[in-house]
UniProtKB/TrEMBL annotation:
This is Exonuclease domain-containing protein. Coiled coil: none annotated. InterPro entries: Ribonucl_H, RNaseH-like_sf, RNaseH_sf. Pfam families: RNase_T. Residues 5-160 form the Exonuclease domain. SUPFAM superfamilies: Ribonuclease H-like. Gene3D superfamilies: Ribonuclease H-like superfamily/Ribonuclease H. GO terms for molecular function: exonuclease activity.
Length: 179
């Protein structure tokens, strides 16, 4: 299995009623060079101006992005060619990110290669710390600044996951032990 760290930006709170703006993905390994990024034209007339502002784009820019069908097919091919075994979805907030990827894969490709589950970095960290309230402290381990560019954000989350693995001696697919 391969772990893929995913981040999504969207123009509203839920798929179908609103649209995904962009997606960033990093396969977890020590090099963090296997990456994917795509932008998607809206699938809905509804949008929240503040959500676009977080992504630093206008509605006009979003309307000019490529059709989501192609981007999701290419993303599926990326996962198929870069995953060793089953791809595993990992995110800062899969309750948000996974729902978009799941909806778009089903809408445009017929199935979601991640299946019906995802892993949350904060829960993993809180468990390792044995402290439920530690769930957001892992974010200090990011090296790449959290910019709301989904590839930057996925990269920072992947960096933090490597640091967590090294700190706790956690075996993760794609990461050889150091030291």
């Amino acid at each position: 299995m391969s772990l893929f760290i995913i981040d999504v930006e969207a123009d509203g709170p839920c798929p179908g009623l609103f649209s995904m703006i962009s997606l960033g993905c990093v396969r977890l390994d020590r090099e963090l060079k296997t990456v994917f990024k795509a932008q998607f034209a809206p699938i809905s007339e509804k949008w929240v101006p503040g959500a676009l502002a977080v992504s630093h784009i206008s509605r006009e820019q979003h309307l000019a992005y490529p059709a989501p069908e192609k981007g999701m097919r290419v993303f599926g091919q990326f996962l198929e060619t870069t995953s060793v075994g089953r791809p595993i979805f990992v995110s800062d907030n899969p309750a948000f990110d996974w729902q978009w990827v799941n909806y778009y894969f089903h809408a445009f490709c017929g199935e979601n290669p991640f299946g019906h589950s995802a892993r949350r970095i904060g829960d993993l960290y809180a468990g390792l710390e044995k402290d439920f309230s530690a769930a957001s402290r892992w974010k200090a381990l990011r090296k790449t600044k959290h910019t709301h560019d989904p590839l930057d954000d996925a990269m920072g989350n992947a960096e933090a996951l490597i640091a967590i693995s090294d700190r706790f001696g956690l075996k993760l697919p794609g990461l050889a032990r150091t030291g």
